[in-house]
Design brief:
With 427 residues, the chain is of the alpha/beta class. Helices cover 40% and strands 16% of the residues.
């Protein structure tokens, strides 16, 4: 068994999508001759927690933990609510309070690349001793937070190890980066650190072909796309009796689907049976502007704001719902975003209604797998037409997904690809 050290920030009991990717890789890597050793913070500030995920950590896996000092504990003395939002990646909008804007400016310019930067040096010292003692030859870092990659950078400079840097999201090209209120010097420093990591790592991993292409423009380091995926799940044959339209995950201002709300309003007004059957389920954080839009379109009585629920329960909800929503910001910067939930949507076997930007990579995957329909935010009439068609199929108990060729996204298949990449030697 080849020992591989995986350096991550998110790990159970953390909730949300960031923890899923490497939890599943760690589960299947031993099947391909790799012994994963995981390094995570001992006392992290996780904005979302899901205790159920702790049961999914494979027995016998070695998990190293070392203390981390995070500024969010001090920032919460000013405002716990605003601190939790920023620490979870929720960027205040234009209507943000002066305090929110100040906290964001401090976060963006004093904590580069992110607020977990104080974990870098202690981790390099701690892991250097472990690498030397255990004879570790391969390390993997996964970000965001991108400060984790700087741990990898430090270890690469001190030891003759193979380093793979896994980017679950882009660094400087991600949409919210421009909202961090960065000074020119801060922007330059981010670019420098990004370029240094990309050039120094032995191999890079991206979760989308769009991100892979972006990185190929600025580095010659080998890059492989390994998407997120789905795992085995206990199946339920029971569908919701209502015509449920469900969205899983944060639904903030940028993703606000005005065209969808308008289409639903018109269908409610036009058809009594549609109005009687409709139920909209929103799981996760919902922005105030989204809630305002729902109220303005007169849809509040149809919406169930469910908040955060465990991943275990999410998997069951996805299988029961009539229609699954996948929403993305309508911008050039987001066309390469492939939400991790998309693959679980595939597995759930329910029709997917995707609404996002032009040339959206996730939308192309929905089309290729024939698992749903994809539209731009402005295509209200087309959204309305497909919802009506699906509603009529629902009435005839004939609404289902025709998804094909999705097994390549199974977590075990993806882990085999990762294991082969770890062992691959570039010429």
């Amino acid at each position: 068994m080849q020992k591989v050290l995986i350096i991550a920030y998110y790990w159970p009991p953390a909730g949300g999508p960031g923890v899923q990717r490497w939890l599943k890789f760690v589960k299947y890597l031993p099947d391909f001759g790799i012994d994963p050793i995981v390094y995570v913070p001992k006392n992290p500030n996780y904005p979302i927690q899901d205790a159920h995920l702790e049961a999914e950590v494979p027995k016998g896996i070695q998990v190293l933990k070392h203390p981390i000092n995070e500024p969010y504990a001090f920032a919460s003395l000013l405002s716990k609510k605003k601190t939790k939002s920023i620490s979870s990646g929720v960027i205040p909008d234009k209507k943000a309070s002066p305090l929110s804007k100040l906290m964001l400016w401090v976060r963006g310019n004093f904590f580069i690349p992110d607020a977990r930067k104080f974990w870098i040096k202690p981790s390099i010292t701690y892991l250097s001793n472990f690498i030397a003692k255990e004879g570790i030859e391969t390390i993997i870092t996964t970000g965001p937070p991108h400060s984790v990659h700087l741990i990898g950078l430090g270890l690469k400079k001190k030891h003759n190890v193979q380093w793979l840097a896994d980017f679950r999201d882009p660094w400087t090209s991600i949409g919210y980066h421009k909202k961090l209120r960065l000074t020119k010097s801060s922007q330059k420093k981010h670019k420098y650190l990004e370029k240094t990591v990309l050039d120094t790592a032995d191999k890079l991993i991206a979760t989308s072909n769009t991100t892979k292409a972006e990185f190929e423009e600025i580095t010659n380091t080998p890059i492989k796309t390994i998407t997120n995926g789905f795992d085995d799940v206990s199946e339920t044959k029971r569908l919701d009796s209502k015509f449920t339209v469900s969205h899983i995950g944060s639904l903030l201002t940028g993703r606000n689907p005005i065209g969808l709300w308008q289409a639903l309003r018109e269908l409610v007004d036009a058809q009594m049976d549609f109005a009687d059957a409709l139920k909209i389920q929103l799981v996760g954080v919902v922005g105030e502007e989204v809630k305002d839009s729902i109220t303005n379109f007169g849809l509040a009585d149809y919406v169930d704001f469910m908040g955060y629920i465990s991943h275990e329960n999410v998997l069951q909800l996805q299988q029961r719902t009539q229609v699954l929503l996948l929403l993305e910001i309508d911008s050039e910067e987001t066309k390469g975003i492939i939400p991790g939930k998309l693959f679980e949507y595939f597995k759930a076997g329910r029709p997917i209604l995707g609404i996002g930007p032009k040339d959206w990579e996730a939308g192309q995957m929905i089309n290729t797998t024939q698992s749903g329909e994809v539209f731009r935010h402005s295509e209200t009439e087309l959204i309305k037409a497909v919802l009506l068609d699906w509603f009529q199929q629902y009435q005839n108990e004939a609404l289902y997904s025709k998804a094909k060729d999705i097994e390549k996204y199974h977590r075990k298949v993806l882990t085999e690809s990762l294991a082969n990449y770890i062992r691959w030697e570039s010429s």
